[in-house]
Design a protein that fits this description.
Elements (H helix, E strand, L loop, with lengths): L3 E5 L5 E4 L4 H12 L3 E6 L5 H13 L3 E6 L9 H4 L4 E4 L11 H22 L5 E5 L35 H17 L6 E7 L1 E3 L10 H10 L11 E6 H13 L8 E2 L2 E4 H12 L12 H11 L5 H7 L9 H6 L7 H14 L19 H12 L7 E2 L8 E2 L3 E3 L1
Parallel strand pairs: 2-3, 2-5, 3-4, 5-6, 6-7, 7-10, 8-9
Antiparallel strand pairs: 1-12, 1-14, 9-11, 13-14
Helix pairs in contact: 1-2, 1-7, 4-5, 6-12, 8-12
């Protein structure tokens, strides 16, 4: 089936907040491949190590990249970076490696960061659209909640109402931040807010030091932490490159509005382990067993203090169901299969030393998969260095968005 090809109006620059992030890296790559001038907001523009992967993108792709110093919690710090921009991609999100006070460490930064960025949007007359990186965490708190959704399926109309400061505080912070963004957007008519709500994001990173929670999950599958077995837990997952594509289209497609659940497939932990075992055999101690829920409930908090019994009770053993048809229809997404993304992610983690080298057959011979290799492989696969992006499986659509996007 023929695909859909877009050509974007690159006359005005765009802003990406949290530019060193996992999703942001791939988004910036897509923007530069299309020839955009990208304003990249980062905490420290002088940190050569953290910006190295973005510098490589600028070297290899036709777009232009300019770095700006900005801090989510510093009022007005995004105003300079936003000047003359038409679209703002707000991917920045507070990250706390240790949470002692959920209100202080998660909720306040999420709310204040959202308010800070949107206050700059209000002051910048050129901005026409804001694309917010939200999460499925703002749609549901625990997998058990899904059974209470209409027909037992998550849709964009559903909101997380079960999380709070004491239970799933991260999900609570994402929910409050997105709700606040919609509240602010509703007070004006000049710019449009569009939200992208991905499931668990997997796939190779462009940065050598990714911080996404998915890397912690995949690391544990391979480093022996869970070799005795894993609980029955499943969630909707999506390739990071599809999340970046969703952002790009949410920024420029005229029909894009509201929230968008973005995920490709539902995988369980044991399914992820089986994918890795099929690829790498016994070179790493991937778990083979699904542990009974009662055992995880009893021993989980002892092994991992972050895994409390309420979390086990409300998330293990339930089915994850969500409707991603809006993202396919409105954004024209054709999702990649997840197995290659998971394999590439694991290879990259081994090459970076995030997972110990394999000790079984095939371990020492694993070809390194660096961040550069991920970038080059993507360019070769899709021909993005030419600036063309063809989405597989979508019917041809003739669409013109004045001042933003036309087909070619």
């Amino acid at each position: 089936m023929p695909g859909k090809a877009f050509r974007y109006d690159t006359a005005a620059p765009v802003l990406v907040t949290g530019a060193t992030g996992y999703v942001a890296g791939w988004l910036i790559r897509r923007l530069l491949a299309e020839g955009f001038a990208v304003h990249a907001a980062v905490r420290d523009p002088d940190n050569a190590e953290k910006l190295a992967h973005l510098r490589r993108l600028e070297r290899d792709l036709p777009g232009r990249l300019k770095f700006f110093r900005a801090d989510l919690l510093k009022d007005g710090s995004y105003t300079e970076a936003m000047q003359t921009c038409r679209v703002v991609f707000h991917t920045a999100s507070p990250f706390a490696s240790v949470v002692n006070d959920p209100q202080r460490d998660l909720v306040d930064p999420a709310l204040n960061g959202t308010r800070n960025v949107l206050a700059s949007v209000e002051r910048t007359e050129t901005v026409e659209r804001v694309v917010l990186t939200s999460s499925c965490a703002a749609i549901f708190g625990d997998v058990a909640d899904i059974a209470l959704a209409p027909d037992g399926i998550l849709t964009e109309e559903v909101w997380n109402t079960s999380s709070n400061l004491d239970h799933q505080p991260y999900n609570y912070s994402k929910t409050l931040a997105e709700r606040e963004a919609w509240r602010i957007a509703g007070t004006q008519t000049r710019w449009r807010l569009v939200a992208v709500n991905p499931g668990l994001v997997i796939g190779p990173a462009l940065s050598s030091a990714p911080t996404s929670e998915s890397f912690n999950i995949v690391r544990q599958l391979g480093d022996g932490s869970v070799k005795a077995g894993v609980p029955r837990y499943e969630i909707g997952m999506v390739d990071v490159r599809d999340v970046a594509e969703a952002h790009l289209r949410a920024g420029f497609l005229q029909r894009a509005e509201g929230r968008h659940i973005v995920y490709a497939e539902v995988l369980s932990l044991i399914a992820m382990s089986r994918i890795l075992r099929r690829q790498f055999g016994d070179a790493w101690p991937f778990p083979r067993r699904v542990l009974p829920k009662w055992l995880v409930w009893l021993l989980g908090p002892v092994v991992n203090p972050m895994l409390d019994r309420a979390m086990v009770a409300r998330n293990m053993g339930y089915s994850w169901r969500a409707d991603n048809s809006k993202s396919r229809r409105a954004l024209g997404l054709d999702y990649r299969p997840l197995a290659p993304a998971l394999v590439a992610m694991f290879e990259q983690m081994v090459a970076a030393g995030l997972v110990p080298p394999g000790t079984g057959p095939g371990g020492p011979g694993l070809a390194p998969a660096s961040a550069d290799a991920a970038q080059e492989g993507e360019a070769a696969r899709e021909g993005q260095l030419s600036g063309r992006r063809v989405v597989r499986g979508a019917p041809p659509v003739v669409e013109t968005v004045p001042g933003a996007l036309v087909t070619k």
